[in-house]
Amino acid sequence: MDINDLPRFDQPWPVTPHPHAAATEEHVLQWAEDFGVIPAYSNRERMAAMRSGWAAAYTFPPHTPIEHLNIWADCIAIAEISDDYCSRLTSQGRQADWASLDVRLRTASRTGTCSPEEEDPMVRATADMSARLLAVADPLVQHRWADHYDALWDAWLIEASGRTYTSVDEYVRIRRAAIGTAMVSDILEAVERIAIPADAYNAYPFTTLVDAYCDIMAWQNDIASYALEAASGEGNNLVAILMEQDGLTTRQAMITAVHMLGKRIADYTSAEQSLPEYLQHSIIPASDRPGVLRWAQDNRSTINGVTYWYRETDRYSLSKTTQERLITDTPGV
Prior knowledge:
The chain has helices at about 20-35, 35-40, 45-50, 50-60, 65-90, 95-110, 120-135, 140-160, 170-180, 180-190, 200, 205-230, 240-245, 250-275, 275-280, 290-310, 320-325. By secondary structure, the chain is mostly helical.
């Protein structure tokens, strides 16, 4: 299915890249080289083709300070590389190698630090990226960032294990953490200079806003990447899970996934529309309320912006002929 055909949020303005897009793209490539991620885990040509800086530029609001934009670009780059590496090691039966790295990555992402003797470039780069986020975020947001990163690592281990899901709901719950989008929302809290109190964050409408935000990003990603993942035998995909659990053809599962995506966009929209009235009677300080409304709008803009990145990155590239061959009416294909 063409990315242009996916449901998306209504917005009265077009998606435009951040003014510092080119500088952020150059930053992330240089940052990866400085920490040795290039050439240890990738090369400059491959990373340039991912266009992580442009992904950040399409998805974050134009008033984002370049320092925050660079953090987001680095987060995208390190997430893509570590995700691929985790999948590669586990597919080779090298779970012990990943387990050792996983412990150090968790510490780096939670604390923004690593051992002075740490030699792995990905761990050192993760510590640097997290340290910069923690330095500009409220302690409440720092805590959420750490918890969301831990949930990400847990979900990746489950996905890489080849686990058989017992239901679509179970897959959705794990995928919600594995997509890492809750961390994006954390960075946006820092961008807007707010910290949503825990009692509010853990109740409606914020639970719906965050969960729907993660689901929309995950399902949009699954639909966009299905053909490539099917060709490689990857089963952690909403379309594949719908086929397996509900006995659907590929085309039927794709239609169902798109319908689910549209419904989740409606859930987010309804929760966002309830925010102004909610804020009038909430525990959120009056000075933070305009920032909370911008935060909800920023989340929405991120979803629309990432579709532009899908068109430019080579991460989900697959020939149109191959995509059409995979999306057939044959069950299990």
